[in-house]
Amino acid sequence: MEQIIQIIPATDWYAVYRDDTSYHPDEKIDYVVPVVCWALVEDESGERRVDAIDDGTTSFDGEFVSQVSNFRRYLYSKSTYRSGEELDSK
């Protein structure tokens, strides 16, 4: 079982996800969701890593961002995105 050791705010950070539900298989649409905080996580063996928790607007199920199957990358941006906004819209 993993344990959160510490959390800190993640101002201006976003998680970029791939929309896997597109009706057109050739279309690859990425969208962003604000990251709420960074978490220092420790597993059973004592190994630690930093992961993120997003705002859960699109569908929060308690997973860390990096564990979501359609997660692509993190984005740091001073631009303000709405949760679920397509990435190429700005």
Q: How would you portray this structure in words?
A:
This protein is mainly beta and about 90 residues long. The protein is about 0% helix and about 50% strand. It has strands at about 5-10, 15-20, 30-40, 50-55, 70-75, 85. Strands 1, 2, 3, 4, 5 and 6 form a six-stranded antiparallel sheet that branches. A hairpin with a 5-residue loop joins strand 3 (about 30-40) and strand 4 (about 50-55). The termini are far apart. The mean pLDDT is about 85.
Q: State Rg.
A: 14 Å
- How many beta-strand runs? 6
Low confidence ranges:
none
Distance between the termini: 40 Å
Please identify the structural class as seen in this structure.
mainly beta
Query: Treating each run of at least 4 consecutive H or I residues as one helix, how many helices?
Result: 0
* Average pLDDT figure: 86
- How are helices and strands ordered from N to C? EEEEEE
Work out the count of structural domains.
1
**How is the main sheet built?**
6 strands, antiparallel
Strand residues, percent = over 45%
Overall body shape: globular
Q: In percent, how helical is the residue content?
A: under 10%
